[in-house]
């Protein structure tokens, strides 16, 4: 089975968040289930310098400028098809932001181009490889099924995964023609979103199957509180929507082999954790306090992640004798708040405002607990790293956090299955109580060690979820794939898409 992934990020080539981890790790894990995966990505400068065995397989015109497709391999042997369109991607820095930190004003065109080229790859099979299934990820790939339907009478089935509904991928209505989209699709049953074009909505409406990254988020998305205006579409398409919990790449996130950790450890031989703990305290300018509950955060600093709640609850952690080591970057207001907190609590709060893959590994290896107080969280990866590293997750009860942690309540603790601490309501009081529970458990070495053992035993790799994606592809390829196409109004419309 040949699977074409279409995404704007893929670890290790380019990453701003969990999307990249998922695309990279899932693509690798699917090989064990008989899938031959190719990942289509923009040829950003950072991608260009890392790809191996590059060869041009197709050259064409894309929105009035020359472009080409480059087949290549990543260092970890993923097969990549990179879209080289210098007028769109040959720009420094983040995949999405200009040097001032604002979204590039032509992002809709940059990622419409990715979708258009993906459709072109499927239609023309330039090097003889043809996709049996196309798997799109988030708004950046959302137009792929529209371009496919417009250019092929029997297009392969499309799976669309929602990693985060908060990014609608909007542009003005007058872009419809310039993007080569069918005018008939610009209506509330198509890709229109309140008078604009939404690339995300195109994916939601025109794909054959929708997945999201946890079962709880799949349910939450259908409610006004979480659906960000797309809940109606998702309720209409609920027959084709499923939640499949993300896994993590256990070769990269493994405390026994982690090259960024100061010492290796495992559940049988846990002593190395103390060495990492001391390294974190030294690295983050924290007191070398052996009794403190050392809590880490590795996160984008945005409203979604609830870190303003942590700022409010910080005095509780300090009163409990705890320490915070935070690694993150994002909203300038939150960055300033944490910088101020580090100054207010020297030796107790250490903050690094940057993106640092190596330091993220050290924090996971050395902290006692990892905090994820998100207001909403489609899946979340850092709590899964926490389980693998025996770094106890303290999480808000939402989305994938609720699906991946077993709260240390009395019943779960008695049964020996608790793996973390979960709190609600998601506010400073709720978080303060959770920190109090964590500190009490940490103060009792037997209880803490039970938690750590149960956490490290939990399966967090990709095999189970990759099997579910492979089964989904199989089902689509082998059967009539459109149980609820009435809601999607998938029409075959001709546009000059390639
Ligand atoms: P999201 O995709 O919403 O940002 P996830 O928890 O799904 O959240 O994934 C975040 C990924 O990005 C994780 O791999 C996490 O380790 C990584 N990450 C986030 N911020 C940083 C940072 N400042 N430095 C290093 N890694 C980070």
Topology:
Elements: E1 2-6, H1 18-29, E2 36-42, H2 45-50, E3 52-62, E4 65-73, E5 79-84, H3 86-89, H4 107-124, E6 133-137, H5 144-151, E7 158-162, E8 170-172, E9 192-193, E10 196-198, H6 199-206, E11 209-212, H7 215-220, H8 224-227, H9 231-236, E12 241-243, H10 272-283, E13 294-301, H11 307-319, E14 323-330, H12 332-344, E15 349-353, H13 357-366, E16 369-372, H14 382-388, E17 392-396, H15 399-404, H16 410-415, E18 421-423, H17 428-442, H18 445-457, H19 463-478, H20 485-488
Residues 17-19, 21, 298-300, 327-329, 355-357, 360, 379-382 line the site of adenosine-5'-diphosphate.
Walk me through this protein's architecture.
With 498 residues, the protein is of the alpha/beta class. The protein folds into two domains: 2-247 and 464-492, 3-Layer(aba) Sandwich (Rossmann fold); 271-456, Rossmann fold. Helices cover 38% and strands 19% of the residues. The protein has helices at 18-29, 45-50, 86-89, 107-124, 144-151, 199-206, 215-220, 224-227, 231-236, 272-283, 307-319, 332-344, 357-366, 382-388, 399-404, 410-415, 428-442, 445-457, 463-478, 485-488, and strands spanning 2-6, 36-42, 52-62, 65-73, 79-84, 133-137, 158-162, 170-172, 192-193, 196-198, 209-212, 241-243, 294-301, 323-330, 349-353, 369-372, 392-396, 421-423. Strands 3-4-5-2-1-6-7-11-12 form a nine-stranded mixed beta sheet, with helices on both faces. Helix 4 crosses helix 5 (144-151), helix 11 (307-319) runs parallel beside helix 12 and helix 11 (307-319) packs across helix 17. The protein is globular and about 65 Å long. The two termini are 24 Å apart. The model is unreliable at 482-498 (pLDDT under 50). Adenosine-5'-diphosphate binds at residues 17-19, 21, 298-300, 327-329, 355-357, 360, 379-382.
């Amino acid at each position: 089975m040949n699977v074409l992934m279409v995404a704007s990020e893929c670890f290790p080539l380019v990453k701003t968040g969990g999307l990249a981890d998922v695309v990279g790790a899932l693509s690798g894990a699917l090989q064990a289930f008989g899938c031959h995966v190719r990942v289509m990505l923009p040829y950003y400068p950072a991608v260009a310098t890392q790809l191996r065995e590059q060869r041009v397989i197709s050259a064409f015109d894309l929105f009035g400028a020359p472009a080409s497709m480059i087949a290549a391999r990543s260092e970890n042997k993923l097969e990549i098809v990179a879209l080289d369109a210098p007028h769109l991607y040959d720009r420094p820095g983040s995949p999405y932001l200009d040097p001032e930190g604002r979204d590039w004003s032509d992002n809709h065109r940059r990622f419409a181009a990715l979708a258009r080229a993906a459709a072109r790859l499927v239609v023309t099979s330039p090097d003889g490889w043809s996709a049996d299934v196309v798997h799109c990820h988030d708004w950046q790939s959302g137009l792929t099924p529209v371009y496919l339907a417009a250019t092929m009478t029997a297009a392969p089935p499309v799976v669309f995964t929602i990693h985060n509904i908060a990014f609608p991928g909007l542009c003005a209505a007058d872009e419809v023609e310039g993007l080569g989209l069918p005018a008939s699709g610009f209506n509330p049953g198509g890709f229109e979103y309140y008078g604009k074009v939404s690339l995300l909505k195109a994916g939601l409406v025109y794909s054959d199957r929708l997945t999201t990254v946890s079962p709880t988020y799949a349910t939450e998305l259908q409610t006004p509180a979480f659906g960000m205006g797309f809940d109606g579409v998702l309720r209409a398409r609920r027959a084709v929507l499923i939640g499949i919990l993300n896994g993590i790449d256990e070769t990269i996130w493994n405390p026994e082999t982690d090259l960024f950790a100061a010492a290796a450890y495992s559940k049988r031989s846990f002593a190395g954790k103390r060495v990492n703990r001391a390294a974190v305290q030294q690295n983050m300018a924290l007191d070398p306090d052996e009794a403190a509950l050392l809590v880490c955060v590795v996160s984008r600093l945005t409203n979604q992640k609830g870190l303003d709640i942590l700022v409010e609850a910080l005095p509780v952690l300090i009163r409990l004798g705890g320490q915070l080591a935070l690694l993150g970057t994002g909203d300038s207001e939150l960055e300033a708040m944490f910088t101020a907190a580090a100054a207010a609590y020297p030796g107790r709060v250490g903050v690094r405002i940057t993106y640092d893959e190596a330091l993220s590994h050290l924090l996971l290896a050395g902290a006692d607990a990892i905090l994820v107080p998100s207001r909403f969280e489609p899946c979340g990866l850092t709590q899964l790293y926490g389980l693998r590293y025996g770094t106890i997750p303290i999480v808000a009860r939402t989305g994938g956090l609720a699906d991946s942690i077993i709260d240390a309540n009395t019943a779960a603790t008695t049964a020996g299955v608790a793996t973390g601490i979960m709190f609600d309501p998601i506010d400073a009081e709720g978080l303060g109580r959770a920190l109090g529970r964590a500190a009490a458990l940490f103060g009792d070495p037997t209880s803490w060690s039970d938690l750590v053992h149960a956490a490290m035993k939990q399966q967090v790799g990709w095999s189970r979820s990759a099997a579910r994606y492979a089964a989904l592809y199989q089902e689509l390829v082998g059967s009539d794939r459109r149980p609820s196409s009435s809601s999607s109004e998938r029409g075959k419309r001709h546009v000059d898409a390639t």
